[in-house]
Batch of 2 targets.
Target 1
Amino acid sequence: MTSQELDAKYQKNLTAAINKMKKAKVDSTAIKVFANQYQALASGATGIIREDDILPLKNLPKLTDLKVDEKHARSALEKTAVIKLNGGLGTSMGLDKVKTLLPICDGKNFLDIMIEQILDTRRKTNARLPLIFMNSFRTQQDTFDYIEKYPELPVDDLPLDFFQNSNPKLLSEDLAPVVWSDNKELEWNPPGHGDIYPALWGSGILEKLIEQGFEFAFISNGDNLGAVADAKIAGWLSENNIPFAMEVCERSINDRKGGHLAIRKSDERVILRESSQTLSDEMEFFTDETRHRFFNTNNIWVNLKHLHNVLSETEGALELPFIRNVKNVDPSKPNSPEVVQLESAMGAAIEIFAGATAIEVPRARFMPVKTTNELLLMRSDVFEIGKDFIMVQKIRKLPKIELDSRYYKFINDFDKRFKTVPSLKDATSFRVEGEHIFDKPMKITGDAHITD
């Protein structure tokens, strides 16, 4: 097959994918982003970032060392909006509703805690501090039904949410949009949290925030209860005219899978590299926490006017590096057709903005719950909800939790077996093999290993 014939085939399949998106009423900006990524992929681009093309990032400013005028910080916070990524169902934990409804601590779920954090900050600072969710069609109704209990949450006429977009999954063999009659929803994939930029543009939220006097947005994952709007960071952005800043933590041996920052040799820009953008024979460099010291917490601060200027140049289609994610169309069926999911990372925008930077923050600002291992910790006596509704870690070092995935991976199985959560504040590690029912108070100390 000649290259011309190959190009024609891909063009035909791209047209089919675009028509599918139009029929599903996907926003035109998201379609443009998808088309750009598709053309790059079909032309042979891989999205891979080679180790020879980057340098490790050395030292960064620390939040604990920032000197920001208190009045300036308060003024900047008054011009800040909070955006939470809330489109996930937590399918990796077996959830079929929005993940942020999952109970965490003292009978409160993610939504309760993040909303109470916002309301508490408003009371203390008089900042408007709107909370806006980026929902999916599968999470909006559940979220709105629940937050009716917080009638004070809306700010002026700002909407409480906007929608993330969807990409069609592509057959690996020819990049044609997949057809899966068993479950039509599985023909689509979320385009990654990098979709927030075209979604903000296409929804009109970005312009609305600027019109109402907001200058900064603090964006974070809905399942990270440590991500609280910080006046000092907002003031730092304002004082130094920083267009984009990423919160990072220093990597430990347990952070080897998370995306890390580096410096691209060709233009000396700070970039984000994910594991899916790394060659398999270079993973030893990617996972070396002493070489690449800082990982992305996905807590992002952006100057809204700078973002608007950048998006205006491309009509909303921010040119982020794409991620080629290969999966099965039905993840539960390994023999189902192999597909390519085109995605992008929100933090990758750090390379787009001249003057973008990162700031090292304490671990307390990074408390994600991705697995039932982390959920067990959150529900234990290791954490408590503080007076300001911030999750407080009561011990210096968290114990390592390993639960047998055969019996504890999914939330229904987990809740059925952990009827009572053990005390873990004196534990170094807690490993459970086999099926066990925890229905009585138990105190774990040191290294504990429960086996069959």
Note: The chain has two domains: 3-365, 372-450.
Target 2
Amino acid sequence: MEQDEPLTAGQLPEWDQEVRRLVNAGQLAEANVLFDKVIAHHPKTVDHTVRAALQISRAISAWRLGRIPLALELAADGWTDLGSVTEGPAAAYTLGLLGYLLENLGNRRAALDVLRQAVRLGRGTDNPVIIGGNLQKLGGTLNFRAAEADPDSARVAFEEARSVLAEGLSISGLSGRDHRALLGAYGRSLAGLGELAAAAEAGRQVHQLGVEAGDLWAQAVGAWVLACVHRARGELVQARTLAARAVHHTERIADTSLLLRFSQDLADICAELEDPVGEAEALRRSLSAARKAADTLRDGLSQAMEQRRLAAAAQRMAMAAQEAAARDPLTGLANRLGLERTAPAMLARAVDDGRTPWLVLVDVDWFKGVNDDAGHAAGDSALREIAQLLRHECRSDDLVARWAGDEFVVLLGDASGDRDAGPVVAERIRASVASHDWTMVLGSARRPTVSIGVASGPVVLDELFAAADLVLYQAKRQGRNRVAVYQPIADISQLASER
């Protein structure tokens, strides 16, 4: 499927148009097969409002095919692409599609507002397809509202519908389905206003054009308009026949909103004819259509919720996997990866807040001897115990990590302007380990202590770590179980040379 021509406002790719044609011709199986291929293809366009129109148009096709989760997903994508754009032909076209979709989804108040805005924007363009399409959608929606309203309100709605639809029919350059849709809706508004001869002519034309084009949608609308004309004239038998034909065609093209309207009109005509069997059958069809619409929407929403649940679960699993990859399985502390992921943001915040970052590097003294005396299982227990002591001596916003083996790192989250925060925390850690009761963990084996290097100043983790590592070596040389603090840069070279 090749569709490499860039899209423009008001234009749908050839294959998207073919899907709509198949649906309106009642060839739903063929439409579904083609639609699966269509949605896998993304035509070239640099205009996100044009992409929005394409997504919402495809949402409408998905809706007509009963694929509600996909329809909702496409509609959401299209609405997101549209963003806050409120002018231009692409926005006008997209809003027209969105208003139509909202009407079908049941958000009727929002639909009418969106369609009126779409018409206003469309009038500001020189694109006859966009202007005519938006006028038809608004006029058709007003017709449906009028059919459900009291006589006075109905007349107002039919008059507005006739006005906008006549404007659409006056646009040159419209043909095919655009013209048929405008003419059918115009005929219905004329019938509602009592202009029966003109309405009948419009209905006959639409029906004939639909037959010639193989368009069941147009045939259904034409039959409906003629049914309304005959009903208004009191010719109820003819009206019943035509309304039944409209219902039959609409069932074949799976247009639920039309089916609800047409079957209800058929039931009313049968009631006026005192035909209880016909009325009951029409009401059954209306109820079935309403139930199907509700079930489809409910099932679709359920599927969408289930998909959302699965997506959320997958996201949680991915996050858990990421977290596990950044956590040391022995101690539960962050590991080296976790430290390297988190530290840059912490250091950046320190700079933004005008604070000096502190890094505390902790190394267990003579840890090999602990393993040799008590065994590796006891050594692991000792490391877990030291991890707990580190947590206890640090605050919740400090980052405590196991760097490697018997080496730990603490990056202070908020020193609150305390120039001695690093050394103070380091000394608390050293004293806590030195005074800890190790009997339960190590028995009579060698008690561990820790040597600690503390550094502040550099805002790059590697530099900060390198400085702390240098002074940690100094603490080891001076006898272990002590804290050494990073000195000014001038002294670092000397420490390095000593090492």
Note: The chain has a mean pLDDT of 83.
